[in-house]
Amino acid sequence: MAIGRPLNRVEAREKVTGAARYTADARLPGMVYAALVGSAVSAGRVRAIDTTRAEAAPGVLAVLTHLNRPQWHGTPDALRYQETRFPLADEHIHHHGQYLAMVVAGTREQAAHAADLVAVDYETRPAVPTLDAALPDAHQPVWRFEPEFPTLLAIGDPEAMLAAADVRIEREYRTPYYSHAPMEPHATLAHWAGGSLTVYTTSQHVHGDRPVIAGALGVPPDRVRVISSLVGGAFGNKTAVWGPTLLAAVAARQVGRPVQLVVTRKQVFTCHGHQPPILQRLRVGANRDGTLQAIVHHTVNGTPVLFDRPEGAISPTGTVYALRSVGVRVEVARMHMPTPATMRTPGDGPGMFAVGSALDELSYELGIDPVELRRRNHLAAHPLERKPWSGKQLLECYDEGARRFGWERRAPRPRMMRDGGDWVGFGMSSAQRLEHHGPARAVVEIRDDGTAEVRTSTQEIGTGNLTTLTQVAAGGTGIEPDRIGFRSGDTTLPESSPTYGSRTTGSTGTAVHLAALRARQVAARLAIADARSPLHGLPEERIGAAHGRLYDVDAPRRGETYRELLRRNGRRSIVEQGFHDLAGRDPRFSYATFGAHFTEVRIDDTLRRVRVTRHVGVFAVGRVLNPKTARNQAQGGIVYALGGALMEELTADPVTGRFIAPALTDYHVPVNADVGEIDVSFVEEPDYGAHPLGAKGLGEVVAVGVHASIANAVYHAIGIRVRDLPITPDKLVAGPR
Amino acid sequence: MSDGTKRRTVLAGGLSVGVGLAAAPARAEASTPKTDLLTLVVNGRRVRVDVDVRASLLDTLRDRLHLTGTKKGCDQGACGACTVLLDGRRVLSCLTLAVMHEGSEVTTVEGLADGDRLHPVQRAFADHDGFQCGFCTSGQIVSAVGLLAEHPDLTDAEIPELMSGNLCRCAAYGNIRAAIAAAARLSREGE
Ligand code: FES
Ligand code: FES
């Protein structure tokens, strides 16, 4: 059985030899290079832009600005472009770094140099630099995802329930600007031939990008091909088309050569998405026995000046714990900041930091163990959908996590555990992520040489999906994984679900699964109908498939290989489609993935630096397709959130709002030495209600609750509650020594 | 009106003045780019290439020699994705100009395997799943090869600190450590 085996990644060899091709590695004959000029101010207008020196510089082929750019087609809104303004739309400046010009030249060095020669005369206006400065503007957002992602909701009468509760806490939590910071900067290579455009780009969703690119350029979508080979990490900031991709495409048309544009690391930080600062106010009421009565959760996040983009930090509030009443409200406040992008894990990441911290605070208030408090508020059904959860092994996750971690050794109060100069603390949190899904298509082809191929547009962004989907195809066809090829990341292929929102396993996985089963079924029927086949005349359900061979399940030695069957019948191959549609789920249930985190921190009493020395994560995500890649992804998600909890923060200048040091030297993502022992395991029970494979998403739930688990451990260690992330040493020096 | 506005206006003006006057000689020189004929020994092969004197070793490898295995994660010496061996030592190829290395020997990730046979460190990365997206992997592997050459007696406990110059945003760190530890054991036992 291929599914569930800890196989090496199918692209492992390419990745360890340097043969793996990422977008910036693509080369085309005659290719030229582009470089961008970003705004030095956060708000205002381009009074004048002088490109004469840039144009005169050696090798320069074109300089695009708002004054001479080709006409855009369509409107950002109609195309669902992620900003409300196309690049170089006009002279107005809405955020620092905003692209004001693009230079195209014969070499990379020439382009970079000429970009330096573009002189901009700014008219500067005062900027709204920080969330605090923006707060007076806080307002109910207007956006296109209401009511799918609601920003205002009430169940019961939370105010009355709060007033009547035995215990109330009221707290404010903050998260800073976070950057996705994938190692691969965004890149595009655009190439025109005979009125058709090919765009190689760093994308989590090629089929989603195509209509946007085609629409903005005024080209029919079927004349645009989008290719995203391997993606060097994304975490949400490659979910949609960014301006430079459109600019590369128009520039390539203008200069008549393929144009490559790779943004700089600074530009990744400034103009390709981030999570904006979020302020969360939480009021929680509970009775003495720990039963939650009410949560009122009010959030405000920064939004660009041009449009409302709420962060759904209220996402866990009403769905994670049993509650008699809930009130949530999301507001946004306009700041002069670049466009944010959905980031692992949207909503639940920051939301669970607040909810998971507040539960911990309540546990001390009530004198109830944090795990026990959560157990007492365990929720069997989705409170809004009013349906039981399918595959909720959260209680088992608590048990298993506590056991593996040694939770029983936890001292009941803070500042009770010391080891030499270190304070030691234990913390925990629950994790939950609703299981989103979307339509997906895939094709599986079984060939007369005994091999097979999977074709679907999915992108490999590091999740291991080429491997797990190969295993799914192997499971369906009975062909060994090393005999199965994969074509992906191309709009010429059937449309998979996007590689964000933990949708690949459930949605694309189902499509591959169904395609594989169908291909096998067609082969089985061919054998049954073929008088020369050893399987001739057998009932279909008696035919099994393994090792590239169809066989009689009652007499396994009776059978033949796909190769023999197809060759004898003169069939080159069998090609079948699989489709995951939204009606595929059992409608009687609600779906999510679950987990529990347990963290040990050690804090040096003098330096007050927090180290996560041990972390245990236990997850219930249905069936695990490949434990090797799954564990890796889970550890990665935990570390990703650990960075946000302890060290990551894009600092904005308090006057201009500009990011002070948009570089990896100052934006500290965790390094190898920051990461202690991370123990990941699964409570594995297939969830067949969710998907026919029984497997669900993994990449996001693993990062939910980590911030709270760490912050709770910090409090337990040292008695200082940090409610504004990241928990840097300066926030711990004030406390008692 | 406000100080801020004035300061910014001056700054903007200052910038163009700088371009036009103060920095003019340097700029003028740079805008008639010089090229140099450079000889390198890359992965054991002698290559001669005419390079822009401004080109980093990284861009030269990638753009001129078509060795795209070495990655550009930051171009600022902060991520390690561009690590290559230069005369046997680990260097960040984005931080050094190609023309500074006339006659040098460069080993990139493409030069580690022996034909179809993977280098033990490559094998270990594949088997221990020492990556996810793979974008940092060339740098991690070349770094690890350099590290093992410099520290034949590398202990497991030393790996995290000594590998902290190579960022992995996917955070495959645990597996990277396991891979390097396994390769280190292998090379010790092999001796
Ligand atoms: S690209 Fe050289 S260190 Fe990042
Ligand atoms: S594997 Fe993605 S950055 Fe290391």
From TrEMBL, chain A:
UniProt-annotated stretches for the region Disordered: 477-507
Residue stretches spanning the membrane: none
Entry keyword annotation includes Oxidoreductase: yes
Record's keyword annotation contains Oxidoreductase: yes
Amino acid composition bias (Low complexity), ranges on this chain: 496-507
Keywords, in A-Z order: Molybdenum, Oxidoreductase
Pfam families xref list: Ald_Xan_dh_C, MoCoBD_1, MoCoBD_2
SMART domains: Ald_Xan_dh_C
Highest taxon of source: Bacteria
Gene3D superfamilies for this protein: Aldehyde oxidase/xanthine dehydrogenase, a/b hammerhead (3.90.1170.50), Aldehyde oxidase/xanthine dehydrogenase, molybdopterin binding domain (3.30.365.10)
Aldehyde oxidase/xanthine dehydrogenase a/b hammerhead domain span: 17-126
Annotated protein name in UniProt: Xanthine dehydrogenase family protein molybdopterin-binding subunit
Organism listed in the record: Phytohabitans maris
Automatic annotation (TrEMBL), chain B:
Coiled-coil zones: none
UniProt domain 2Fe-2S ferredoxin-type: residue ranges: 36-112
Pfam family, one: Fer2_2
Signal peptide per UniProt: none
InterPro entries membership: 2Fe-2S-bd, 2Fe-2S-bd_dom_sf, 2Fe-2S_ferredoxin-like_sf, 2Fe-2S_ferredoxin-type, 2Fe2S_fd_BS, Aldehyde_Oxdr_Iron-Sulfur, Beta-grasp_dom_sf, TAT_signal
Keyword Metal-binding (UniProt): yes
PROSITE patterns in the record: 2FE2S_FER_1, 2FE2S_FER_2, TAT
UniProt keyword list: Iron, Metal-binding, Oxidoreductase
Entry keyword annotation includes Oxidoreductase: yes
Annotated PANTHER family: OXIDOREDUCTASE WITH IRON-SULFUR SUBUNIT (PTHR45331:SF2), OXIDOREDUCTASE, IRON-SULPHUR BINDING SUBUNIT-RELATED-RELATED (PTHR45331)
Name listed for the protein in its UniProt record: (2Fe-2S)-binding protein
